[in-house]
Write a structure and sequence with these properties.
Largest sheet: 8 strands, antiparallel
Distance between the termini: 12 Å
Strand content: over 45%
Order of helices and strands: EEEEEEEEEE
Number of helices: 0
Helix content: under 10%
CATH superfamily: Jelly Rolls
Length: 111
């Protein structure tokens, strides 16, 4: 499991197009089929333990929660933070207060 930060501090300032006070945090570029979706975990909810069918990026876009990898250690995440799992890597996720996460899955996904 690799923890990834997509917050403003991890981005690059946008200087083109007369932009002001804007940053861009690249998530990925893919040439292979890609699934992109949202997971909503309610207060006290859990997405149970499973192995990633393909490389998977989980980015918290609202709220906060936790993820747990094969080492069974909880890592707490908040909005703007994420985690990358390789294909076959076991994990689960949950939230005490609720969260929404952007999930990107693709055979060729790399961060």
């Amino acid at each position: 499991m690799q923890i990834v930060n997509f917050g403003k501090a991890a981005g690059n300032e946008i200087n083109n197009y007369d932009s002001i006070l804007s940053t861009y945090s690249k998530i990925m570029k893919t040439e292979e089929p890609t699934n992109i979706g949202l997971i909503h975990i309610e207060k006290g909810g859990v997405v149970g333990y499973h192995q990633a069918p393909v490389p998977q990026l989980f980015v918290v876009v609202n709220g906060e929660g936790w993820v747990e990898g094969e080492d069974k250690k909880k890592v707490y995440l908040k909005s703007g933070e994420g985690v990358f799992w390789n294909k076959g890597e076991g994990h689960l996720s949950g939230s005490d207060e609720g969260l929404t996460a952007l999930v990107i899955q693709s055979e060729e996904l790399k961060v």
